[in-house]
Design brief:
Blueprint: H1 3-11, H2 15-21, H3 24-37, E1 44-50, H4 55-59, H5 64-74, E2 85-91, E3 96-101, H6 103-106, H7 111-126, H8 130-148, E4 165-166
Parallel strand pairs: 1-2, 1-4
Antiparallel strand pairs: 2-3
Length: 167
């Protein structure tokens, strides 16, 4: 995508469009899916939705991946006791989804696994199935985390908020 096309896409994405796609019932379903997910593993999942980037990051050529990495730190996803945080980042203007996993998880789950989940979620989102795409993506994340990071026997504290972050 050319630079001017990308900028136009971001500047023409309006907040109400993002809120319509991620309506209160969709947000509630995502939050419930995160709560249910975290019962099956010792990981921590955050879900962030950003309508569009500001003009300065766009001028600097900030990619969705770079923004997701920055948010991983800003939202404190890296700050879990076992380094098992996962961020699901949606950049609505570009229809991009990025999953960033903490180093404890990245050592066991290859990036290709996360990319496949992102691609399937993107396909569902393009078809307007935001709740289904997010729920199915979170189910697959749950399966990966449960396989490598079962819940701790001495309890499974909820270290990060489960609500969707709107930026």
């Amino acid at each position: 995508m050319k630079r001017w096309q990308r900028m136009f896409r971001h500047f023409s994405t309006l907040p109400w469009q993002v809120r319509r796609a991620f309506s209160p019932p969709v947000l509630q379903a995502i939050e419930q899916a995160i709560v249910a997910s975290e019962l099956h593993h010792s990981g921590e999942v955050r879900f962030a939705v950003e309508g569009s980037l500001d003009w300065l990051p766009l001028l600097r050529g900030c990619t969705a991946r770079q923004r997701a990495l920055a948010l991983f730190g800003q939202l404190g996803v890296w700050d879990t006791a076992q380094n098992t945080g996962v961020l699901v980042y949606v950049l609505y203007a570009e229809r991009r989804i990025e999953i960033v996993a903490d180093r404890g998880i990245a050592a066991k789950v290859p990036q290709a696994e996360w990319d496949a989940i992102c691609n399937d979620m993107r396909s569902a989102f393009r078809a307007g199935r935001y709740q289904q795409g997010a729920s199915e993506g979170l189910q697959r994340i749950t399966a990966l985390l449960a396989a490598h990071f079962p819940p701790a026997a001495d309890g499974n504290p909820d270290e990060l908020p489960n609500r969707v972050v709107f930026l």
